[in-house]
Write a structure and sequence with these properties.
Residues 274-283 have a biased composition (Basic and acidic residues). It comes from Streptomyces solicavernae. Pfam families: HipA_2. This is HipA-like kinase domain-containing protein. With 283 residues, the chain is an alpha+beta fold. It folds into 2 domains: 4-99; 105-263, no CATH class. It contains 8 helices and 10 strands. A 5-stranded mixed β-barrel has the order 1-2-3-5-4. The longest helix has 16 residues, at 43-58. The chain is globular, with a radius of gyration of 19 Å. The two termini are 21 Å apart. The structure holds adenosine-5'-triphosphate (ATP) and magnesium ion. Residues 14, 16-19, 21, 33, 64, 98-101, 104, 106, 138, 140, 142, 151-152, 154 line the site of adenosine-5'-triphosphate (ATP).
Amino acid sequence: MLTEVTATRYVTPLREGGSLPGIVEADDLGTYVTKFTGAGQGRKTLVAEVVCGQLARRLGLRVPDLVQIQLDPVIGLGEPDQEVQELLKASGGLNLGMDYLPGSLGFDPLAYEVSAEEAGRVVWFDALVNNVDRSWRNPNMLVWHGDLWLIDHGASMIWHHNWRTAQAAAAKPYDASDHALAPFGPDLAAAAAELAPRVTEELLTEVAADVPDEWLVDEPGFETPDELRRAYVDVLHARVQGLAERITLGPRVERKQSNAPGWLTDHLAPWPHPTKDKKGAGQ
Ligand SMILES: Nc1ncnc2c1ncn2[C@@H]1O[C@H](COP(=O)(O)OP(=O)(O)OP(=O)(O)O)[C@@H](O)[C@H]1O
Ligand SMILES: [Mg+2]
């Protein structure tokens, strides 16, 4: 289960996000980028954030900590913006919080160097969860303290919008030619050798257990939240086999020399990354 906190203050909306995420403070004195259940994208976006975010972290990739945020819409009463008011009113109960990384910058492929190994791990992971939202147009990665952090997995696992065909989707190829890290020569073979054996049913079951029941109930065709969790485990587990061979990278592009100042890029941390997750593999 994710740590649960209670929202104490709505700070400001993040207008660059399509789902109107907001910065929210909570009773643990944390500050979180919050994705709301009342957003038009629906609760499956939040399920995808939890399953993919927790899985990525357990595989040793950097993802800001996730929490479930209990929200009383009353905290939005003073909000001048009607769109925000309505979103908060529609989002009473549990919402998803991601630890806010103060001072982080959006990843810019022309400004930051990423090793072939790290690029390989990220692309392989995105192929596993069918993430179509890490293109050079919208990288959904942040650079913080010189390291690359993954955010925004809400559009992943597209197959969970149609469970009847989900199992068949597990065998589908993944086109990474638009991926923001494709120009870095991702080493997919190395990533697969390292990560595939770690994506076990046991790990996937633990990750699926982190999704709150209330985002899983009443899914047509499933009696219980656990039955639905099992379906996520089955599709992801089936997808691992031979995944690297199903990824298309497109032609290798010659990258320009980085123009970024050295203070931003000189201290990328070596692999494996230290992780705060006690259960996390790769420590
Ligand atoms: N943990 C974080 N720390 C700091 N800033 C963040 C964090 N998460 C998100 N942001 C900022 O908020 C923006 C929107 O977040 P995110 O991409 O997750 O929202 P979204 O509504 O799913 O966006 P979209 O679907 O339009 O890409 C990011 O581009 C980034 O600038
Ligand atoms: Mg985004």
